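ok, trying the design again with the full structure, not the truncated one.
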């Protein structure tokens, strides 16, 4: 991997792309520390030092924003509104036939769906910024903090804060698209990678600074290495279904007769099921926070559902991950569409008839592949969490398996893109 980066920096145009990408990442990190107008930065720092945040959903958003949410900065919302909008647009393809037609139209339809995603991102940014400011004003963002993070509660100040955070989200979208067009590609993924990777040193330092810090640090580091190795092994694994194309005459030319395969990854859903499960499990905790803390059901929800170390929370987490893994895979991979395309171009799976039998066979394979894939996601999500609970590193989990999964996945994809661009410019062939 390091060799690929070294060879890339020796190539002038790739070097410009890499330096441009790194520059955009630096701008993104700078924006994460610029306070929003109306926010008292010293008071925010005092509240962070005193309390931290116990809200799971806000902790998830804070993770994807690289710690910018708790800073109440210009980029406080991070990339989360865009992720949510992208997922919603993908799910709407099942509900709205027009969206499915646009998806099948190719580049023009994809551009239209991207435009819808941008509009929805801005709308979600307005909603989420309003929610974050409301929670910060009510004191729920830093429960128990003795100072006000927003001293001036005039409506003009609050409107300016909403506009600033929404504009920050729009700027992040633009920065991600710049990386995709003029950088090494995968702009949004690289910004997510930057946000999560930026939180790792602080989390590891907090572990090393506690009781038996050195021992816990070494154990956590070993667990991270094992999880990274597992993620790399599974993410690179795939089931290859052979496909044979029949020969056909067009004029005087013979076409077809080639053989290829359909690559089916063990984890086709990626990290989406973990995000869905985390977001859904955080909703009861948010509802309980706005309720009367002396009520019995509020205490039960806070102890058994909202707490990350509760057995019921962990069990529901696993069940939701497995469910959303099957659900999202069924949405993104359509066996009927794949079978129709194969039949249209004269392709068939050896031993399987074209048409409906091919679709049934693909459905059978997908259902069998998704079972170990969903269990793998659940294990990766739980290993760091259980390890942190056993090591007693604190009430709030510093980072989970989803963070490692995203960092490793984006890293592998980026290296593949750099390697492919290197092969286009310096193809060595068989005689190296």
């Amino acid at each position: 991997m390091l060799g690929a980066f070294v060879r890339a920096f020796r190539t002038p145009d790739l070097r410009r792309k890499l330096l441009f990408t790194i520059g955009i990442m630096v701008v993104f990190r700078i924006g994460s520390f610029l306070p929003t107008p109306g926010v008292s930065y010293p008071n925010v720092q005092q509240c962070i030092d005193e309390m931290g945040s116990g809200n799971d959903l806000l902790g998830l958003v804070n993770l994807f924003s690289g710690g910018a949410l708790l800073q109440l900065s210009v980029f406080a919302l991070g990339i989360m509104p865009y992720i949510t909008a992208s997922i919603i647009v993908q799910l709407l393809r099942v509900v709205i036939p027009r969206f499915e037609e646009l998806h099948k139209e190719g580049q023009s339809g994809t551009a239209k769906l991207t435009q819808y995603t941008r509009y929805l991102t801005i709308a979600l940014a307005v909603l989420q910024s309003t929610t974050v400011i409301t929670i910060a004003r009510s004191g729920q963002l830093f429960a128990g903090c003795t100072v006000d993070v927003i001293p001036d509660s005039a409506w003009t100040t609050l409107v300016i804060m909403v506009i600033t955070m929404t504009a920050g989200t729009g700027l992040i979208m633009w920065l991600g698209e710049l990386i995709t067009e003029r950088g090494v590609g995968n702009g949004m993924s690289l910004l997510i990678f930057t946000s999560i990777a930026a939180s790792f040193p602080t989390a590891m330092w907090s572990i090393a600074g506690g009781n038996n810090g050195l021992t816990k640090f070494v154990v956590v580091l070993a667990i991270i290495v094992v999880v990274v190795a597992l993620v790399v092994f599974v993410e690179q694994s795939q089931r290859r279904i052979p496909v044979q194309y029949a020969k056909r005459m067009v004029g005087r030319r013979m076409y077809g007769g080639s053989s290829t395969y359909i690559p089916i990854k063990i984890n086709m859903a990626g990290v989406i099921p973990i995000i869905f499960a985390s977001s859904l499990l955080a909703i009861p905790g948010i509802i309980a926070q706005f309720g009367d803390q002396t009520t019995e059901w509020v205490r039960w929800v806070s102890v058994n559902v909202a707490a990350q170390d509760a057995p019921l929370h962990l069990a529901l987490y696993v069940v939701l991950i497995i469910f959303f893994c099957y659900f999202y895979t069924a949405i993104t991979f359509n066996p009927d569409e794949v079978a129709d395309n194969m039949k249209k171009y004269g392709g068939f799976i050896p031993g399987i008839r074209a048409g409906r039998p091919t679709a049934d066979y693909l459905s059978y394979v997908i259902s069998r592949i998704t079972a170990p894939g969903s269990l793998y996601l659940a294990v990766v999500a739980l290993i760091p969490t259980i390890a942190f609970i056993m090591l007693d590193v604190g009430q709030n989990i510093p980072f989970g398996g989803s963070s490692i999964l995203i960092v490793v996945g984006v890293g592998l994809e980026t290296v593949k893109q750099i390697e492919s661009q290197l092969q286009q410019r310096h193809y060595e062939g068989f005689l190296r």
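Keeping the full-length input from now on. Residues 138 and 148 are 9 Å apart (CA to CA).
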